[in-house]
């Protein structure tokens, strides 16, 4: 794994997606694409740190209500902020079921990830279209925790560059410790809802299972469903 964390106080899950081994013996370029949790809690020091990165475009996967409740603090370098709302939370209606338990919560999360792969393709297609525009780079994308909607987006981006599946999953799992302080109450004090605040291999695995079984693998999925120009992406984002 690469040491890709960006120290920005108030955004513990902010990190550079560069440094990973990619296709043709190359590596994902640094300072091109970043993933994060929301930027609402950025301290002044954290915002100052993020200023040095030179982010031009921010993509926000949160719903309108989420964004209104916790508006981003954006560095002055940002030229465009794009909302691509993914309302995966609507699938969590069972959260209020009195019979909810940890196993059932895990099942809900697996359902969410399957939906990310099958139901929200227009959102991720838009995301990749923004990545394809050099004027938007460096680009940062995020949701609230930066682990589910963002985690799937990061997995797709790294996969488009030929990063091995196991490395993609390892990057996804980095959110476990980086979000622990942010969601300590949910993780430590309620076993029933604990899966909602974590990432597990079975979650991202459920999305990849849909991609592999229904769309012929990740490269086919990216090309046919999300209209990604994989050779162009590898030329731009690896070296």
Overall 3D geometry?
globular
Q: What strand line-up does the widest sheet have?
A: 1-2-5-3-4
Structural class: alpha/beta
Unreliable runs: none
Radius of gyration: 17 Å
Counting DSSP E segments of at least 2 residues, the number of strands comes to 5
Distance between the termini: 17 Å
Proportion in β-strands: 5-15%
Report helical residue fraction: 40-55%
Continuous helix count: 11
Mean pLDDT: 89
H/E series, N to C? EEHEHEHHEHHHHHHH
Major sheet attributes: 5 strands, mixed
Description:
By secondary structure, this protein is of the alpha/beta class. Helix content is 43%, strand content 8%. It is built from 11 helices and 5 strands; from the N terminus they run ββαβαβααβααααααα. The protein has helices at residues 44-51, 64-69, 102-118, 121-131, 149-160, 165-173, 175-178, 184-188, 201-215, 218-225, 230-237; strands at residues 15-16, 33-36, 57-60, 80-83, 139-142. A 5-stranded mixed sheet has the order 1-2-5-3-4, covered by helices on one side. Helix 2 links the parallel strand 3 (57-60) and strand 4. Helix 3 (102-118) packs parallel to helix 9 (201-215) and helix 9 (201-215) crosses helix 10 (218-225). The longest helix has 17 residues, at 102-118. The protein is globular. It starts with 14 loop residues before the first strand and ends with a helix.
